[in-house]
Amino acid sequence: MDALRGVDHILHAGDVGDIEILEALRALAPVTAIRGNVDTYGPCAQLPPTEAVELGGKLFYLIHSLHDLDLKPEIAEIACVVSGHSHQPEIREERGVLYLNRGAPGRDGFRCRCRWRT
User: Fold this and answer.
1) Which of 99, 59, 93, 57 is nearest to 79 (CA)?
2) What does pTM read for this prediction?
3) What is the pLDDT of residues 61-86, one digit of tens each?
4) Under a CB-based contact definition with an 8 Å cutoff, are residues 99 and 90 in contact?
């Protein structure tokens, strides 16, 4: 939570698990969140499967799994697709669109190394 202090907006790409997590994040900054495959019951199951939010004049599209992407981000003028699901950190650019997966949260993030691709 300390690493998020001072941010303007938080994007959560699913697998929230407990709605109290989003409540704690909202105490720090506005939150845009979607549900993931573990969010199958309770308030987390009511989160949308996808969401678009404009930040800094750029359109961000949240989807839990890139396998479910059913639009062409470059045509929809999406600047960044934010995903989760794999819990593997990855940043890549494709056809002018940034694809970002933060990976698992926490100090070690499931002990994964970030893959940078262009």
Assistant:
1) 59
2) 0.86
3) 999 999 999 999 999 999 999 999 98
4) yes
Q: At 97, is the pLDDT very low, low, confident or very high (cuts 50, 70, 90)?
A: very high
Distance CA 78, CA 111 (A): 30
Closest-CA residue to 31 (of 11, 56, 53): 11
Could you give phi then psi for residue 28, rounded to 5 degrees? -95, -40
Extract the tokens encoding 50: 């996808």
Backbone angles phi, psi at 92, to 5 degrees: -150, 160
Those residues whose C-beta lies under 8 Å from the C-beta of residue 81, and which sit 6 or more positions away, are 60, 61, 62, 63, 66, 69, 73, 97, 98, 99, 100
Which residue in this structure is represented by tokens 């929809």?
76
Q: Which long-range contacts (CB under 8 A, 24 or more apart) does 65-70 make?
A: 65/37, 66/99
